[in-house]
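FAQ: What does the model actually see?

It sees only this:
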Amino acid sequence: MRSMDKLSAFTKNSFQNTMKPLIIWDLDETLVHSVKGHCTDYDFFLETPNFTISTKLRPHVSFVLKELYTYYDFAVWTASGEHYANHIVSHLFNEYDLCFVKTSKDCTIRFDPYNNEYYKIKTLKKIKKRFDLTQVLIVDDVPQTAERNYGNLITISPFTGDLGDNALIDLMKKLIQIKDCPNFRKLRKPSWQRN
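And it is asked to produce this:
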């Protein structure tokens, strides 16, 4: 994984001119589906002292990542914990240099007074010194996590284990179509955000 320390040698302008557009991937229900307990038909497992987490890959995820990496750089930002995130990233992205991996500790906590609950959002201002936000997309199944950056958001239907799911293939085709767009934030995405 490419570290941000390595990248800090670049100035902002030279960094942005040498990078491809960036996709920030969510993990849970976007690229994988995980449950507590050992499920034999799942793809890999995380053993903890108290329980096992079984993880199923979303159909076509390996193919889609390989195809899109030609046109985009990748990063991961999940609302999950660091240990779990690193486990999933090691399985999904071991062939790719990631620009960063952010976890729940990097999210901003917000309060929803209507539902009387806290939730986490991914605030892109935390990365704007290193990345041109007009060239950043967030792919997530929960639109609320990008409430401060809806122009960067592409929502995808939640993956809950359906092996007939083709949402990533549909998404890949659209992302390849827009790869040369000078400003992703200005794109009208409502007609293709929910697969």
